[in-house]
Write a structure and sequence with these properties.
- The complex is a heterodimer of chains A (410) and B (267).
- Chain A contains 16 helices and 14 strands.
- With 410 residues, chain A is α/β, with parallel strands linked by helices.
- Chain A folds into 2 domains: 155 residues, Rossmann fold (3-Layer(aba) Sandwich); 215 residues, Rossmann fold.
- In chain A, α5 packs across α10.
- The longest helix of chain A has 24 residues.
- With 267 residues, chain B is of the alpha/beta class.
- Chain B has a single domain, classed as TIM Barrel (Alpha-Beta Barrel), CATH 3.20.20.
- The chains are: A alpha/beta (410), B alpha/beta (267).
């Protein structure tokens, strides 16, 4: 984390956010009930203290190397690049991390913080189950009680991850309210936290929620972007022309983007889930087709109706099926530093199959959205140009979804 | 003087603890709400809290979540709720009405337009669960422009410093959340409530209401000994839910509960 802090000291940098109240421009902040204001202050103080503490940093670095398996490789997808006949495509292999996605970078960090704060119980919300598994994993290792909230719709879609969490000793509580997906799991986790604030640490899985979560989760995820930035310079001797990541809440994306924000020549794309198509209304693309509002503790772009009610989202990928997005992404959209685009279910599915067959790498359906956009963009670029796509997770968890869509039973 | 202020001044003269029932507007269907508001006043309510349904009520327990979902089946919007207050005012110009809800519907309407419309309809106070004073600057300006009282929550976790800052932003009364938890919690401890209410009194002369976890005449009376107002929500909503489909039964059951609380408070 020390390098990141040096970078953020530069004047005029895009890495000076958020302000002391957690604001990224007009976005972010702390929009929670009064009961949570003091616990959030306690968390902010602890985080500020330990993020600069050499012992904490050393322990985190050790765990990232030996438990998570970092650094993850940057892989040149030669076959796929040649087939697309355009830019050279590099994949940041977060799918090779322990538990199979980028989520563990954050849960390792937050769990170490929880331990130092003397909390005995951790809770989490999960959509696809990747963050739930990553939380259950660190809780098992640190011998902490672990409760994961998961929408009952998602439980149906992600049975394997539910069983993984239970094997790891976590209690998975189905959430039956609202749309029974990720947003409702987040509501329920917040209700648990407000009831058990004294002994419970809430490990939020994405760069959303009240301050300091968007900042803290970003800081824990930037390890992947810093590695990619060094790796591409070693392998190509230059900076990439373009970097791409999928955006649900946006933690893998901000992890990749943040270390490149001040590299003005690097074009950045965040890829949202267009579901059945942006024009159908059945999607999960608040940045492309929503508007600003307040939900889950922060002001950000949302999917909402004209009365301010949050509307149900749709995506083939449970991990992108969320009506909000991290507030820093909202800010990066408004200032024009990052371009947000959308990929629909069919396009993502096609990319899933392509990468699996051409490179022998089965990507998560979430990451397949980023890959699908890369496949559109690469042929428009020169063969000497370079792009990095964040392969945020592996696809094993999605084989039931894919098989079902193709009329098969696994 | 605001309706809320004059109501509390009058109650103080009469040594009467305020009874503040909460109902979610439009639950279980829109035509129930205004008649129920009048019935609650007749049964002994001194102020009314009207809940604005929201799709994601993060601070509410299962009972009030379900009330929101029932109301949203009828697409009850913030605008509809304000219209209900306007209708209520045709027959009752004295009982203060506080809107309670979440920020996003207000954000969409716009602070100034919301405050203007609500004040004209006869709303007196606004309790927005998820906007703490730190984020309230523009919101407070709009409310104060239209003489609406901002009602803020104080929690068991609020430090002395926070209590002082909240009381600076608040007017009308302050609302002490008696338990760590969501609405409808069952673990109310009257002794700790008394301690915290005494602490809050050192920071403000505003009346202090207490809510979350008051579900019968007995707990209302106990809390009434230390607070200026008791707020009852989930216990009422349970009676609404149990009698959904029978408007008369809703009115009579809710009235009976409030009458028993009124008697216990006045003893």
């Amino acid at each position: 984390m020390s390098k990141m802090n040096e970078q953020s000291m530069q004047a005029g940098s895009l890495t000076n956010m958020p302000d002391a109240g957690g604001h990224f421009g007009v976005y972010g902040g702390m929009f929670v009930a009064e009961t949570l204001m003091s616990p959030l202050a306690e968390l902010r103080e602890a985080y500020e203290r330990y993020r600069h503490d050499p012992e904490f940093i050393a322990e985190l670095d050790y765990d990232l190397k030996h438990f998570v398996g970092r650094p993850s490789p940057l892989y040149f997808a030669r076959q796929w690049s040649e087939k697309l006949a355009g830019a050279k495509i590099y994949l940041k292999r977060e799918d090779l991390n322990h538990t199979g996605a980028h989520k563990i970078n954050n849960t390792v960090g937050q769990a170490l913080l929880a331990k130092r704060m003397g909390k005995k119980r951790v809770i989490a919300e999960t959509g696809a189950g990747q963050h739930g598994v990553a939380t259950a994993t660190v809780a098992a290792r640190l011998n902490m009680e672990c409760v994961v909230y998961m929408g009952s719709e998602d439980i149906k879609r992600q049975a394997i991850n539910v069983y993984r969490m239970r094997l790891l000793g976590a209690e998975v509580i189905p959430v039956e309210s609202g749309s029974r997906t990720l947003k409702d799991a987040l509501n329920e986790a917040m209700r648990d936290w407000v009831t058990n604030v004294d002994d419970t640490f809430y490990i939020i899985g994405t760069v959303a929620g009240p301050h300091p979560y968007p900042q803290m989760v970003r800081d824990f995820q930037t390890i992947l972007g810093r590695e990619a930035r060094e790796q591409i310079q070693e392998m190509e001797g230059s900076m990439p022309d373009t970097i791409i990541a999928c955006v649900g809440g946006g933690s893998n994306a901000i992890g990749l983007f943040y270390p490149f924000l001040d590299d003005k020549d690097v074009t950045i794309y965040g890829v949202e889930a267009a579901g059945n198509g942006l024009d159908t209304g059945h999607h999960a693309a608040p940045l492309c087709a929503g508007r600003p509002g307040v939900l889950h503790g922060n002001r950000t772009y949302l999917m909402e109706d004209n009365d301010g009610q949050i509307i149900e989202t749709h995506s083939i990928s449970a991990g992108l099926d969320y009506p909000g997005v991290g507030p820093e992404h909202s800010w990066l959209k408004d200032i024009g530093r990052v371009q947000y685009v959308a990929i629909n279910d069919d396009e993502a599915l096609q990319a899933f199959h392509q990468l699996t067959r051409i490179e022998g790498i089965m990507p998560a359906l979430e990451s397949s959205h980023a890959l699908a956009y890369a496949a559109k963009l690469a042929p428009t670029m020169g063969r000497d140009q370079v792009m990095i796509v964040n392969l945020s997770g592996r696809g094993d968890k999605d084989i039931h979804t894919v098989a079902t869509l193709e009329g098969m039973t696994v | 003087m605001s309706r809320i202020k004059s109501r509390f001044a009058d109650l103080e003269k009469r040594h009467r603890t305020a009874l503040i029932p909460y109902v979610t507007a439009g639950d279980p269907e829109p035509s129930v709400t205004v008649p129920l508001m009048h019935a609650m006043v007749e049964a002994g309510a001194d102020l009314l809290e009207l809940g604005v349904p929201f799709s994601d009520p993060m601070a509410d327990g299962p009972v009030i979540q379900a009330a929101s979902e029932r109301a949203l089946v009828h697409h009850i919007s913030l605008k509809n709720v304000i219209e209900m207050v306007k209708e209520f005012r045709q027959r009752d110009n004295d009982t203060p009405v506080i809107l309670m809800g979440y920020l996003n519907p207000v954000e969409v309407m716009g602070y100034e337009h919301f405050a203007h419309t609500a004040a004209r309809a006869g709303v007196d106070g606004v309790l927005t669960v998820d906007i703490p004073p730190e984020e309230s600057r523009d919101f407070l300006v709009a409310l104060k422009n239209h003489k609406l009282d901002p009602i803020y929550l104080i929690a068991p976790t609020s430090s002395g410093e926070r209590i002082r800052s909240i009381c600076t932003s608040a007017s009308g009364f302050v609302y002490y959340v008696s338990v760590k938890g969501v609405t409808g919690a069952a673990n109310l401890e009257v002794a700790s409530v008394a301690d915290k209410v005494a602490e809050i009194r050192q920071s403000t002369n505003l009346p202090i209401g207490v809510g979350f976890g008051i579900n019968d005449a007995n707990s209302a009376a106990e809390v009434g000994k230390v607070a200026d107002a008791v707020v009852v929500g989930s216990a009422i909503i349970r009676r609404v839910a149990d009698n959904a489909g029978d408007k008369d039964a809703i009115v009579s059951e809710v009235s009976a509960l409030l009458q028993s609380m009124r008697m216990a408070l006045d003893k």
